[in-house]
Amino acid sequence: MTPGHPAEPFWYALTDQHRAELREMGTRNDYRPETVVIREGERTDFAFVVMDGCVKVSATGRHGYQTILGLRDAGELVGELAGLDGGRRSATVSALSPVEGLLLPADRFGPFLRRNPGAAAILHRTVSMRLREADRYRSAAGSEAVLQRFAALLLHLAKRYGLQVDGGGVLIDLPLSQEDLAGLILTSKRTLGRILESWRADDIIVTGRRTMLLHSVDALRTIARNNA
Questions:
Q1: Distance CA 110, CA 103 (A)
Q2: How far apart are alpha carbons 78 and 154 in whole angstroms?
Q3: Which residues form the Cyclic nucleotide-binding domain (predicted)?
Q4: How far apart are CA 134 and CA 137, in angstroms?
Q5: CATH architecture of structural domain 10-141
Q6: Which H or E run includes 55?
Q7: Average pLDDT score, the chain
Q8: Hey, which residues does 31 pair with through a beta bridge?
Q9: What is the pLDDT of residues 18-60, one digit of tens each?
Q10: Mean pLDDT across the stretch 159-165?
Q11: pTM listed for this prediction
């Protein structure tokens, strides 16, 4: 499943006073789906709080392979490292759904953290938890079968973004492409396509253009559990 989801997102872990200060210093913006908020390699000096919606964090390797580093939801902070230290962006952040965001300029966010050690501790905890979850993610990629990883991913997405539909199925309400899904489980688009074809034939899933309907959640649980 995707790495990088602290138990309590950064924004919601802050005090009311912290949030009021950040709203005062920040700029609210709305983003349409597929809009790039932060681009890999750029030098920009802000951090970004997802106030509503979902963004995708991705990075491109030397051979053009896209790795999805995580999906971030309402309350989560992204771009905090380059936004504070002035380095180049290590990943691209783009809107998956309509997104409302709060841009926090580094020249004000940095002093805010120095004035508020409690908020700085929350940021440190957020970064540490993401690093630990990324380590577990890479470990799973090396030890679990692709089928198991994909089944676990779909169950995870269904739990967080799923909508119950008539007949007992679950619709994953995120416009993820096959490339996105392949990147999330560190496999090739061709391998993912073969799995999707097999699962469609077995009536486990139904796919559309960037839509995924899970017909048999129980079958996916069995695959994820059995390392099939």
A1: 13
A2: 23
A3: 10-113
A4: 5
A5: Sandwich (2.60)
A6: strand 55-60
A7: 87
A8: 99
A9: 999 999 999 999 999 999 999 999 988 899 999 999 999 988 8
A10: 88
A11: 0.80
Residue in this structure with the two tokens 């936004």, named with its chain if needed: 83
- Asked if the domains 10-141 and 145-226 are classified in one and the same CATH topology, the answer is no
Q: Which CATH architecture has domain 145-226?
A: Orthogonal Bundle (1.10)
Q: Does residue 136 carry a pLDDT above 70?
A: no
List C-alpha distances in Å: 178 to 35, 45, 126, 167, 219. 18, 32, 29, 25, 21
* Separation between Cα atoms, residue 141 and residue 144, nearest integer Å: 6
CA distances from 107 to 44, 170, 191 (A): 12, 44, 45
Nearest residue to 57 (alpha-carbon basis) of 38, 32, 29, 85: 38
Tokens linked to 165:
């539909």
Domain ranges of the chain: 10-141, 145-226
Give 6's pLDDT tier (boundaries 50, 70, 90).
very low
